[in-house]
Amino acid sequence: MGQRIHFVVDPQGWCCMGLIIFIWLYNTIFIPKVILFPHYEEGNISVVAVLCYYFCSLFCIASLFRASVADPGKLPENPKIPITEREHWELCNKCNMMRPKRSHHCSRCGHCVRRMDHHCPWINNCVGEDNHWLFLQLCFYTQILSSYTLLLDFCHYYYFLPLKKENW
């Protein structure tokens, strides 16, 4: 499994990644300012809840960058095919290169990828053999951060605000 850096020149992918980073920055600044810090100062939540939010946010953005720059399993220009495996390889119609049977050609990236799942515009990269686990890690951390934010919003509107009104 290679850990080479892979960068795709795709304006649509750059727009999608820019949107994701903008939303991430907005939530990393807005949620703590509106929900976490005021309730921490009032003593309703502990510092652990604030630190957990920032750790989840950090893991999410780190996994986004790792998945977007990791090599998905791009096939080399001149692959060395062992004689015993020649029947498991085929010719790509688009790039005229030999590739393993489960490889696919990505029209966005312009090359063949081993065990390609799909081209994801949100990470601006193909999801293939070498970065599939990074993509799943990104999905996991995004789900954790989204669930935690949803829980904080729920607590804010249905627990902390009625608590303030009764004490007021």
From TrEMBL:
It is found in: Membrane. The chain crosses the membrane at residues 12-31, 43-65. It catalyses: L-cysteinyl-[protein] + hexadecanoyl-CoA = S-hexadecanoyl-L-cysteinyl-[protein] + CoA. Keywords: Acyltransferase, Membrane, Transferase, Transmembrane, Transmembrane helix. Residues 88-162 form the Palmitoyltransferase DHHC domain. Its main location: membrane. InterPro entries: Palmitoyltrfase_DHHC, PFA4/ZDH16/20/ERF2-like. Its EC number is 2.3.1.225. GO terms for biological process: protein targeting to membrane. PROSITE patterns: DHHC. GO terms for cellular component: endoplasmic reticulum; Golgi apparatus; membrane. It comes from the Eukaryota. GO terms for molecular function: protein-cysteine S-palmitoyltransferase activity. It is an enzyme of class 2 (transferase). It is a multi-pass membrane protein. The DHHC domain is required for palmitoyltransferase activity. Belongs to the DHHC palmitoyltransferase family. This is Palmitoyltransferase. It comes from Sitta europaea. The lineage of its organism: Eukaryota, Metazoa, Chordata, Craniata, Vertebrata.
